[in-house]
Specification:
Elements (H helix, E strand, L loop, with lengths): L7 E3 L6 E3 L36 H4 L3 E5 L8 H16 L2 E5 L5 E2 L2 E2 L13 E4 L5 H9 L4 E4 L9 H17 L2 E3 L19 E6 L6 H4 L8 E6 L8 H9 L4 E8 L5 H13 L4 E5 L4 H11 L6 H10 L2 E4 L2 H13 L7 E6 L2 H13 L9 H7 L13 E2 L9 H11 L3 E8 L6 H13 L6 E5 L7 H7 L5 E4 L2 H19 L14 H7 L7 E2 L1 H10 L7 E4 L2 H11 L3 E6 L12 E5 L2 H18 L5 E6 L5 E10 L3 E8 L3 H4 L3 E4 L5 H10 L17 H18 L3 E11 L6 E3 L2 E5 L1
Parallel strand pairs: 3-4, 3-7, 7-8, 8-9, 10-11, 10-12, 12-13, 13-14, 15-16, 15-17, 17-18, 18-19
Antiparallel strand pairs: 1-2, 5-6, 20-30, 21-24, 22-23, 22-24, 25-26, 25-28, 26-27, 28-29, 28-30
Helix pairs in contact: 3-4, 6-7, 10-16, 13-14, 14-15, 17-18, 19-20
Length: about 750
């Protein structure tokens, strides 16, 4: 483990820590430039683990300098200074105001410049328009962290982006860590210290968007940190995610993300959280073109392809939600609820209509609603009239909740070994019945380790049963809408299912190039598109099966090749610029005789000449007819680099766009999950009498294409294998056509 002047790098354990000792005599070794262990790089030279910066002294400094501090009434910096003083008092930090023309600020001695600071200063808050000139001074003073509120950087356009680049370069050379620019005071808010239990740590790129999560404290839900990352000239969302995932008090991380500075670093941080079993819930802006454009203008970061972002988050267990209300409700449940003992969801209500409505939404979302056993139903009918359904959902009819029977029903449901979550939707207040029901739910929740979720549907929210009874409980998860409850419970069960089987894909990522890579590189031509024949040679280098074929330059050679390949044959014009041959009539299918081959060759050459295409020959190929046409490809994403796509192939890829995406590296489980995400995945199982396809062979092709993406990523701009014919089970898969573009 390598150390830094910023203190520690945490290990994979959330509790074990390795402390770096001593001071660095010059510019500090930056934590985010150091991998967890020497040589831990993949085949393309990228790190395989997220370094964890020690941010303890950012959030809990012992000494703080406020540069630009003011106590003059009516000045904007005065209010900020006052808030920082209050915050420093709460965390026990000494404060050093810095201002060139003031001797004191709020009664504290004021230094004229950063150079006049004495003793170790952990954090400098920069209340200045241009922080760049101060970076060198802060480094000389050995300040560890700085926060820059100033705006006018990458969010304003090219000129501001250039200014931010200069700031980032200066920070990088200095060794200190910078939060901002274009950040705010959220990190210095008042966090309640009277709340117990696992906490939510909050990361936002727009401070106001974190307010709903922050106010959860008023409902008794603990928050430990708030990182408003701003433009991320240095410290970025991924740094805070890695840090929070290593904190023992953090039960969940909630994020509002407009764009990512470094996609790879974000995935490494998400991988760390997944290994630590810390749930991450995120709102990621950019599902639409308008959202992407607005987000980019706000912080100056890339939003990336939304389909790739969505797939990458799902791949590493990040739970993506759309609304801030979903963010707060889902993060709260995940932070507080213990791991499930079963996956079944029981729905209990005082109205059959209410239970049916919620159950319908839950089942549509994929939540398991097990039918209760005959013995359990008989037990419930001791307290519930026989004419009411208790199979799940359970309808009490209302009256039993008003007396001793209400608690018996709840306890019986929670005791069922097939029930992992109990949901009770209360669509409106109906005192005293609803008051008694709420209290019974709270009392029962205190006696179980299973989540008890209540939906309080009243639009007022002023009722005592809601404000005092339900919100006063640390064990009941209370929602205001059916939809948010369904979203949170699905995320809760999904997270624990994911975490139980998670293995970091970076553990098995290739470290050294394969012999296939050396063969393939010899076939690449920088800046060019390869012909189909050359692209297939690339596939062959990685052990991907292609049809028997020969490239010929005469009609006579075509006839000889057909005899060797075996009739029937397919003939295709071959040239690097031919991406879509069928549209030009440059493909002949099902040729069964020498005369057809001879005529086909001449026709292909004539069409190519007419279209102005210079051929490098004509391919005479084995004809493969029976199978499921798929597409497998590689492309480059602006955030994550090489990505692998699989979907229904042939013309269906353009008509249906039924594809799944992953970011390498990934394992066989993710390759199979990609197939399961396809709307048309049933085709692989065989439909209308067709035999099941060789899914194992398809998965193997996806993994080999992934290896190609990892090893040739810097040189291969695009690869499109379409169609990949997946033959019946046990017969393999054949790449019938391929397109490759070199970088």
């Amino acid at each position: 483990m390598l150390g830094s002047t910023h203190g520690t790098l945490t290990t994979n354990s959330r509790h074990a820590r390795v402390v770096a000792c001593g001071e660095h005599p010059g510019p500090a070794v930056r934590v985010h430039d150091v991998a967890e262990s020497t040589g831990d790089l993949d085949v393309s030279g990228r790190p395989l683990h997220a370094p964890v910066p020690d941010l303890d002294r950012l959030f809990r400094p012992e000494a703080v300098a406020i540069v630009g501090a003011s106590d003059a009434e009516g000045r904007p910096h005065t209010g900020i200074t006052r808030q920082l003083l209050d915050w420093a008092d709460r965390v026990g930090a000494r404060v050093h105001p810095v201002h060139p023309t003031r001797s004191t600020v709020f009664g504290l001695p004021c230094r004229p410049s950063v150079a006049d600071l004495s003793g170790q200063v952990d954090l400098a808050v920069l209340l200045v328009k241009d922080p760049l000139p101060l970076i060198g001074q802060l480094a000389e003073a050995k300040v560890r962290f700085a926060v820059a509120f100033a705006s006018g950087f990458a969010e304003t356009g090219p000129e501001g982006a250039a200014a931010q680049d200069r700031l980032a370069d200066a920070v990088h050379r200095s060794g200190l860590r910078l939060l901002g620019p274009n950040t705010n005071l959220n990190a210095f808010e008042r966090f309640r210290d009277d709340l117990d239990g696992p906490a939510i740590a909050l990361i936002t790129q727009s401070g106001h968007q974190g307010r709903p999560v922050f106010t959860l404290q008023e409902l008794g839900i603990r928050l430990s940190h708030w990182a408003p990352t701003g433009n991320e000239a240095d410290l970025e969302s991924a740094d805070f995610l890695s840090y929070f995932a290593s904190r023992p008090e953090v039960g969940a991380v909630a994020m509002y993300v407009e764009g990512l500075k470094d996609g790879r670093r974000f995935l490494l941080a998400a991988d760390r959280a997944a290994r630590a079993k810390v749930p991450v819930v995120a709102v990621k802006v950019g599902r639409t073109e308008t959202g992407s454009r607005t987000a980019a203008s706000h912080t100056g970061k890339l939003t990336g392809s939304d389909a790739v972002v969505d797939a990458a988050m799902r791949q590493f267990g990040v739970i993506r939600v759309d609304g801030l209300d979903e963010l707060q409700d889902t993060a709260a449940l995940l932070a507080r609820a213990r791991p499930p003992r079963a996956e079944g969801v029981a729905v209990y209500s005082i109205s059959g209509g209410t239970g049916a409505h919620f159950a319908d939404l839950a089942a549509a979302a994929g939540l398991p609603l097990p039918t209760l056993s005959a013995a359990k139903q008989a037990e419930l009918h001791q307290w519930i009239p026989d004419d009411l359904s208790v199979a799940n959902p359970v309808d009490s009819g209302g009256h039993p909740v008003g007396d001793w029977r209400g608690r018996k029903i709840i306890d019986a449901l929670l005791a069922d070994p097939d029930v992992g979550v109990l949901v009770c939707p209360i669509t409106g207040p109906f005192p005293p019945m609803s008051d008694k029901l709420a209290q019974d739910l709270v009392d029962a929740a205190e006696q179980t380790d299973k989540p008890v979720c209540v939906v309080w549907g009243s639009p007022l929210g002023t009722e005592d049963a809601y404000r005092s009874t339900l919100l006063g409980s640390s064990r009941v998860a209370t929602f205001r809408t059916f939809a948010n409850c369904v979203t949170a419970v699905r995320a809760y069960l999904g997270h624990h299912r994911f975490a139980a089987g998670y293995r970091s894909p970076f553990e098995d990522a290739p470290r050294t190039p394969s012999p296939s890579a050396r063969k393939a590189r010899a076939l690449l031509r920088p800046g060019t598109r390869l012909s189909e024949h050359a692209a297939k040679q690339l596939l062959r280098a990685y052990g991907i099966r292609v049809p028997r074929e020969q490239l010929v330059t005469s009609a006579a050679a075509a006839v000889r090749a057909a005899g060797l390949v075996g009739y029937p044959v397919v003939m295709k014009a071959s040239a690097p610029q031919l991406a879509h041959k069928t549209e030009l009539g440059l493909v002949k299918i099902g040729l069964t005789s020498a005369s057809q081959v001879r005529d086909g060759y001449r026709e292909l050459v004539d069409i190519a000449r007419y279209e102005g295409v210079e051929l490098d020959g004509v391919l005479v190929c084995q004809m493969v007819e029976r199978g499921v046409e798929m597409v497998v490809g590689v492309s480059h994403d602006s955030l994550f680099g090489p990505t692998v796509t699989v979907g229904l192939g042939g013309v269906l890829v353009e008509v249906l766009n039924d594809v799944a995406v992953r970011v390498p590296p990934f394992g066989e489980d993710q390759a199979r999950a990609m197939l399961g995400e396809l709307r048309g995945h049933a085709l692989l199982g065989g439909v209308r009498g067709a035999p099941p396809a060789d899914v194992d062979a398809l998965v193997e092709v996806v993994l080999r294409i992934q290896r190609m993406a990892l090893e040739l990523g810097d040189d291969l701009a695009e690869l499109d294998v379409n169609p990949l014919m997946v033959l019946p089970r046990g017969q393999g898969a054949v790449a019938l056509d391929a397109l490759a573009v070199c970088r």
